[in-house]
Amino acid sequence: MTQVTYDAIPDFYMERAVGKATMPHMHDHPAFELYYLCRGEREYFIGDQFYKVGEGDLVLIPPELLHRTAGKGATRFLLYFSEKFLRRFFNEEMMAALPGREPLVFRPGETLRAEIESELFAMSAEYADGKTPLVASRLCRLLLCIDGAPNGYTQTPLFDRRIGQIVRYINEYYGEIHDIEQIARHFFISKYYLCRTFNKNLGIPLVSYLNTIKIRAAAELMKNRDLNLTEIATRAGFNSSSYFCKVFKAEKGVSPTVYRKNMKGK
């Protein structure tokens, strides 16, 4: 069964690939993702929105935001960069000016597209040579450039539009959702249709996505030392403490008790 994954990645990584590169499962990571499509077509689901991406489009995804990509073969540049990496080279004023707090799909004009591709090819060569400060400088120029330029991208409706509504509903009301039937009733559809459509569009079982959102909330609640694990499980939408512990360990790799202990150590 396909699960939501959390991908650990370095503070900075860059590659240019040709061929069919796909990430069909929902995932997130602790760094920004910048994806520039030179050739081909892709389909992105970011947060709770679908995007159809074509040649010359640039996608910027903030850290910790669930997303997936699929579609036809593509030639693309892919960059990961953490806030820690940015702070090595940028002051607070520059950090505040950078885009990326919300997902962005950007379609430049022809002149700007040529400039973006030129910067990315130069950045790729400097990255291969280990010239990290030059890479950071080009990355800064690129981000500031797209932040102030006209965006020609128009979002095209894709798939079943209710999927985005379902994802938003889960993200907002996870603490009150105790079973999948509750979601199906809210949207006046059958449980079977709901699960089949969700899996078809996002490549992940609905219950896996729901549990991931709940466990994320539980992990955040663990920062509050006044709450015990039973209270945390209840607030995150779990009826059973034992089921909460089982799902938490499957998601995080350790029990809630160990996870909280590790948090305190850090």
Layout of strands and helices, then pairs:
Layout lengths: L4 E2 L5 E8 L3 E6 L3 E9 L1 E5 L2 E5 L4 E4 L5 E4 L3 E8 L1 H7 L2 H6 L6 E3 L3 H19 L3 H17 L13 H12 L6 H7 L4 H12 L3 H16 L7 H7 L5 H12 L3 H10 L1
Parallel strand pairs: 1-3
Antiparallel strand pairs: 2-9, 3-8, 4-7, 4-9, 5-6, 5-8, 7-10
Helix pairs in contact: 3-4
Task: Write a brief caption for the model.
By secondary structure, the protein is an alpha+beta fold. It is built from eleven helices and ten strands.
Polypeptide structure, described:
The protein is α+β, with helices and mostly antiparallel strands and 266 residues long. The chain folds into 2 domains: 144 residues, Regulatory protein AraC (Jelly Rolls), CATH 2.60.120.280; 104 residues, Orthogonal Bundle (Arc Repressor Mutant, subunit A). The protein contains 11 helices and 10 strands. Strands 1-3-8-5-6 form a 5-stranded mixed sheet, with no helix packed on it. A 5-stranded antiparallel sheet has the order 2-9-4-7-10. Helix 3 packs antiparallel against helix 4. The radius of gyration is 20 Å and the shape is globular.
